[in-house]
Amino acid sequence: MAHAVLGVATRGASTPGFWDWSFDPPLVLVVDLALLYWYGSRRSSSPSRTNPQRRLRHACFYGGLAVLLIALASPLERLSEQLFWAHMLQHILLLVVAPPLIVLARPWVRLWRALGLEARRSLAHGFMHGRLSWLRRLSSKLGRPLPSFTLFCGVVLAWHVPLLFDATLHSEVLHALEHTLFFACALMFWKQVIDSPPLHAPLSELQRIVYLIGAMVVMWVLAVVLALAPHPLYGAYAQQASRPGGISALADQQIAAGIMWVPGSIPLVILLFVYLNRWLAPTRAPIRPRQPGTVGAPTRALVSND
Q: What does each of the 306 residues of the chain score in pLDDT, given as a tens digit?
């Protein structure tokens, strides 16, 4: 009996082991996406499946799915219930690691090809003229640069408001909604600065630079607030009797701020320097925004083998 009581009392502070993986819906969804992508790739009519660029895109897609698994199904998920910095690491993986990898992979046509012909016809008709046409109109409006930027920054800031953040730790539904919005809005954000045929980023190189800097500033402001707060902001973590590693709630919060500030900025900084180099290089033709009504490039991408 004494051992049982001790086990219950210390369970919250025990560190999850490598074997503590979860078999919740996120794992099933990631596996399904991997299978769809693999099947769509097998149905490709391309004669050169070993093309280095194509292999790199495959690596990006499967790498992005692996990051999703680490964020949502690995022991990190259990650790995030005890440590704020682990929860912040989840957010960084969902915001600035998995989404750009998947956008770089250009998986859209392959995922589409994995569906049967009748399913594709039915979905296409539904999106164009049927019950799903509202979703096409909504995605067309929200998928533009300004709405995508606003949504990305808005969900980052809103879900870190203490009242809402603490609510996610007591509700599985809210927690799942939080992670879904992070990933979905991040996909829309990264699509604005990374070409992912048949989706094309509409911004010029200078606009992409400003876009990335704006997102970094928002994340840095949140990191500074967390780092300089004189007391823990999130009651769900502050009220824990003990934490893995024996750190205090305030130290936990400051580590989380550092994760958002430094690792969270790395993907943005890498892409920022890429576009700075292209913008300043005199021999490169600048990226020009695609004018409304031009359908040549997207149309060619839709019928290509990628």
A: 333 332 333 334 466 655 667 767 778 888 889 998 998 888 765 555 557 888 899 999 999 999 999 999 888 988 998 899 999 999 999 999 999 999 999 999 888 888 877 777 777 777 777 777 777 777 778 889 999 999 999 999 999 999 999 999 889 899 999 999 999 999 999 999 999 888 888 899 999 999 999 999 999 999 999 999 999 999 989 888 778 888 999 999 999 999 999 999 999 999 999 999 988 886 555 566 555 444 444 434 433 445
Give the Cβ contact number of residue 288 at 10 Å. Answer: 10
**Helices 266-280 and 205-228 sit at what angle, rounded to 10 degrees?**
150
For the chain, the structural domain boundaries read: 21-115+144-285+295-303
